[in-house]
Structure formats: structure tokens, C-alpha cells
Amino acid sequence: MNSIDSRVKGFIFVMITCFAYGLMPALTQLSYKAGLSVSTMLTGRLALGAALIWLTILLRRLPYKVERRHLGFLLFTGCASVVQMITMSESYRYLPGAIVSLLMFLYVSVVVVIEILMGRERFDKTRIICLVCSFGGLVLVIWTPGQGIELNWTGVLLALTAALFYGLYAIGLGEKRTRALESEVVIGYMLLPPLFFNLLRCAAAGEPVFPQTMRQAWYIFLLAFLCVFVAAVCFCKGVKYIGSSNAAIFNTVEPVIAYFAGILLMHDKVSSNAIWGGLLILGSVIYLNLEKRMTNSQGEADNLS
């Protein structure tokens, strides 16, 4: 009964994460309509989100001290998120949020390719098929002839760049010493590089650090609370209850939420090709996670025998 309760709790936490991240594209685009620049939006969102994360760390008295070399690694990995956050946020100016979310899920394929090149994962036909399906899904997502929808190639390239750097960021999260830390502590440190970078970016561009109107402040609060604090904490709890593989599989609900949020809040239009392409990408992501989990389970069984 307790294991069932744990799975239910984990599922609920991951669904909350999907809901929060699924709202992020529409909320970001609404913040732009309210007059926020990318730099000001990111600075406000990251500052408030980091404050909430570190407040949680202090209130829960989580151990946050790390070795100096490992701290350098965490901050360096956080630098990958600088590129990812900026390119993803910029892509929302050119593409519907659901399209960005679908393209972002290609980060799983990026991780698989890099881990194969690094020797962490084996090179086999199954993974090649999944990677080919992901690429085919990408082609379908951006191929919209005769459907009255034209995607901006600048937005597509920005979203793909975000997926690449999010893949690098995810590999950093999988490092052995990093996995041993409390997830909130890891997030707290990795938020620092993008926060300081965007503070400098605001200063260099002469853009305001703080929102100028109540409407802007409201969107920054929603983005920080939902998409940084709630999403990060709930995902950490979800992984604790059901494991990272199951959490990644359930997390594929996020583009669906982004799709409906974009229609309801931004009146987005998504082509039928994008839907089919999204199914190919998400199907490949799910199978890659399932296949990896089954391989790990088989390896553990062989070790026991």
C-alpha cells in the first residue's frame, strides 16, 4: 500500500511540474506583451525564484556546503543554462509555445548522442531508430506547407540551440557528486550564473532590472513562483518517489499542456504536421527512457545472479 501511495504522490508531483512548465511559454509571451524585455523578465524570474529556493534550503536546514572544485563544476554547468534560458526565452518571441516545448524535448536525443560518444551508453540499432524518429519528428514539426502556418526559422534555430544546451545541462546534473546532493541545493547553485549574467546584461543594455508596472510584476511573480520554485521542488519530490526515468516519461505531458495553454491564452495555431511530429519526438523520448530503465534493471539482475 505504501508503494502505491508513493507512486501516486510521485505522479501528482510530476503532473504539477508539467502544469507549471506547460504554462511557462504562454506566461513568457504575455510578459513580453506587457512590455518586459527578455533580460528584465529573466532577471526578475531568476532572482525571485533563487530567493525562494534558498529560503527553502535555509528553513529546511539542508546541507549546502560543497567542495570548492565541485562548486566550480556546478557553476560551470549553470553556465550552460545561461545559453539555454536566453535562447529558449528568445524563441518564444517567434514561435508558438507548444512548438518550442516540442523542440526542447529533443534534448533527450542530445543526451543520448553525447553519452554514446563519451562511452557511457552503448551504440545499438534501437537507439539509432529512436534518434532517427526524433529527427523525423523535428522535420514534421517545422514542415508546414499548405497549412496556413509559417514558422520563423530564427525561432526554430533558437529553440534547437536551447535543446542542445539543455542536454549539456542535463548531463551535468547526472554527474555522480551532483546526484549525491540535495536537488534544491543543486538548483540553488545552478541558478546563480544565469542570474548574474542577466543582471550584467540589463546593466549593459540599459534595461530595467525591476518590473515597471504591476502587470509586469505579476507575470514575473507567476514565472518565478510557478516555473522556477514550484516546478523545481515538485520535480525533485517526484523523482524521490518514482525515480528519474518514470518522472521523465510522465514529464512528456508538458508539451500537451503548453499546446492548450497557448491556444487558450495566446490563440496559437499548431499544424497537424507539428502534432504528428510531436508524437514521434515524444514517443522516441518515452522509449529511450523505458529502454534505458530495462537495460539497467537487466544489468542489476545479472549482477545479483
Helix content: over 70%
Gross geometry: globular
The H/E string reads HHHHHHHHHHHHH
Q: Count the DSSP helices.
A: 13
Count of beta strands: 0
Biggest sheet overview: none
Could you tell me how far the N terminus lies from the C terminus, measured between alpha carbons in angstroms?
Answer: 29 Å
Using only C-alpha atoms, the radius of gyration works out to 19 Å
Q: Can you describe this structure?
A:
With 305 residues, this protein is mainly α. It has one domain (2-304). Helix content is 81%, strand content 0%. The chain is built from 13 helices and no strands. It has helices spanning 2-33, 38-59, 68-91, 97-104, 107-118, 125-142, 153-173, 176-180, 183-190, 192-205, 214-250, 254-266, 272-304. The protein is globular. It starts with a helix and ends with a helix.
